[in-house]
């Protein structure tokens, strides 16, 4: 039975549509639909915070959520249209953006590990909590995250969480329970004065200054206030506690980034296969249209047919002559 495939040149193999090749395009479409759903969720959250964000911290999140959502939606749309309708140009743009995302994620992960490498907590004798010093953290974190320009908004966010008022309700006026409690970095830095100040405990958020004044010449001792709206939110220890929390979160984020990195590599690989399939399908359709239009097989088929004809002409006919 005549088969066209055996006459195709080697580089032409696999050009015909088949399920394994189409699987890459289908998988690509599914991945982009999922990404578009995530993008729509991000856009919805940003719009919600824009109209219903009651706190300054919530409203601060609306711009990043809207930008990330719009970016993911446009990129996913390019990938979806490119893989479904075999638009190679859109798929090329999609792959280029994903490649930049892979590089950006890798650079950010390395950067985060470097800038958070410095910074250790201070163990306090006979206390269940630790304390933090701003000078123990990298200059980049101090100058770009907790500088005076940003601190007003950050402080507003911390106050909105009621982290200190909740601590006061948990401990009340039990000094022994407070000293044994494992406070979070932000609670330790923002909700109480530094231990070195020598202030007398009354409750978790109210401390009495000795008549002789602070035990050490620390600016945080003077910054502390029993006003529940001030406490130690303007202390350097509060900024240090926030950086300690950021350090822990960024280390966790680095692990998440490694997983996202693997996923992006997988998506990029599937996208490359879909892009290659699109180009192959176009080339195959072009060859078939040329064959149909001119009534002649492609050059590879013609050469193979001529070779078969020459080989047949040299074969003996099988007749014998007496």
From TrEMBL:
Signal peptide: none annotated. The lineage of its organism: Eukaryota, Viridiplantae, Streptophyta, Embryophyta, Tracheophyta. Pfam families: Tetraspanin (PF00335). This is Tetraspanin-8. The chain crosses the membrane at residues 26-51, 63-85, 91-115, 252-271. It comes from the Eukaryota. It is found in: Membrane. InterPro entries: TET_plant (IPR044991), Tetraspanin/Peripherin (IPR018499). Its main location: membrane. The keyword Repeat does not apply. Belongs to the tetraspanin (TM4SF) family. GO terms for biological process: auxin-activated signaling pathway. Keywords: Membrane, Transmembrane, Transmembrane helix. One of its GO terms (cellular component) is membrane. It is a multi-pass membrane protein.
